[in-house]
Amino acid sequence: MPPSVGAIALVAMLTGGGPPAAAAESTIGTDGYVHVSPMGTVLGADPYYPKDGNGGYDVGDYNLAIEYLPSSTSIRAKATITATATQDLSRFNLDLCGLSVYSVKVDGVGATHARVGDHELVVTPRTMLAAGAAFTVEIVYGGSPRPLGTARGLVGWQRGYESAVAVGMPRSAMTWFPVNNTEVDKATLHVALTVPNGWQAVSNGTRVSDTPISGYRHTVTWAEETAVAPSAVMAAMGRRWQVDTATLPDGRSVYNAYATWALDKRALGNKLPEVIEFLSGVLGDYPQSAAGGMFLDRPATTHPAQTRPVYGVYAGMSDLVYATAYQWWGDGVTTKMWKDTQLTESFARYAVWLWDAEKNGVDLDQRYLDQVTAAKADARFWAPKLTDPGARAEYTPTAKGVLMVHALRKTVGDELFFQMYSGFPAINQQSNQGWYDFGLYAEAVAERDLSGFFGAWWNGTVIPADEFLFPGEGR
Fold it and tell me: What CATH architecture does domain 5-17+336-474 belong to?
């Protein structure tokens, strides 16, 4: 059931419909995206990754042409980026790790470029870009991409045996193409991947074409016409991979790709339409342009890339449900800063609980009680704040976050909870929100003060008091 019109109006008034642009006194775009609240308060750069993202412009589309050369594990590439200046702009930055930049043009005219720090590509156009002007940046680049280290392992471009995969959070995209690496600058994506014959090439969205090139290569083109955050972009190439295609009842395409030694994951991939049907009954219409998955034959953390999540060799049903739910809670409504990660992560992972209750008869109240009892004396379990777990610890309190979601359900009751669960991503499709925004929304739907619950669960560093730990019927 959708939230009331009054609740929607209240939240729209308080939170705004999209990311505001930071005011700028200089004509130089900021190094690091500066967040501004809907009320005009300057919040500053992302505290975890302050140099990621850039100010002064808004990207509309990334058009990438990438040739992968397996013999040298390198790429030859061209990125064509269309954007709009949000201020008078004499210089701006993009994020790109490693790789060599050979030329840069702005609106077809050669521009000066320089590399600064570990991932800044600084571009100076021949003439200033006026505020509100649309412009195009063409960047020719190449080299051997390298992954980045995170607390959960390597992310970004990773080579395998006769394969390459680019995926991961929070900083994957900048390892293989120049990007405005902030979640609030979503853009459409067009990717043309040229690989040897006998190789498959996969990205977000819908496969547009597969064109032979000079007898021993072919170019596979993908288009994602729904704006995507940088962390939700993926690309994968591999030899002897197998592909299954299908069509959902509403006509949207399903494209599953399986690495050479991952064919046993077909049984899991074939469950995707059932999972989408189940989640659509809970969360509303599937919000993405296509569906599918990339199933690897090596260990990997499940990454819920938009339209095409990536699964490791040990992935199971819970991974499929989580990554599919993330299409609503994560790829649909996306957080603003990385400290907000647990907002979407917790609600997406709670979908696994709902699946287990419906399909496997699991008593969720008993599961909650068992997990709370097991963690009750573990101070480390309760210590991280869900609203700010710390840099490189964004995913540490996920189990606590899922318990919080169930406790919220018991606090407000099923009717109001499911209005929140489906309503928040529905009214914020393809936009960015944070804990504060969801708090306003939840209180508007519940028509009550929930600050005590939020303080105990969201900002608390110890186990919540019993009134919040065992609310309502859960006590």
Answer: Orthogonal Bundle (1.10)
- Quick check: 292 and 196 in contact, CB under 8 A? no
Tell me the average pLDDT of the chain: 92
> If you average pLDDT over residues 94-103, what whole number do you get?
96
Same fold flag, 48-238 and 241-331: no
Given pLDDT bands bounded at 50, 70 and 90, which one contains residue 42?
confident
CB 322 within 8 A of CB 302: yes
pLDDT at 5 (0 to 100): 39
Tokens of 409: 């359900």
pLDDT, residue 14, reads 43
Residue 322: burial class (beta carbons within 10 Å; 0-12, 13-18, 19+) = buried
Residues 301, 394 contacting (CB under 8 angstroms)? no
Of the candidate CATH numbers 3.20.20.70, 3.40.50.1220, 1.20.120.330, 1.10.390.10, the domain formed by 241-331 belongs to 1.10.390.10
Q: How far apart, in whole angstroms, are the C-alpha atoms of residue 358 and residue 185?
A: 37
Name residue 123's amino acid: V
Which DSSP string do the residues of 154-220 spell out, in sequence order? EEEEEEETTEEEEE-TTT-GGGTS-B---TT--EEEEEEEEEETTEEEEESSEEEEEEEETTTEEEE
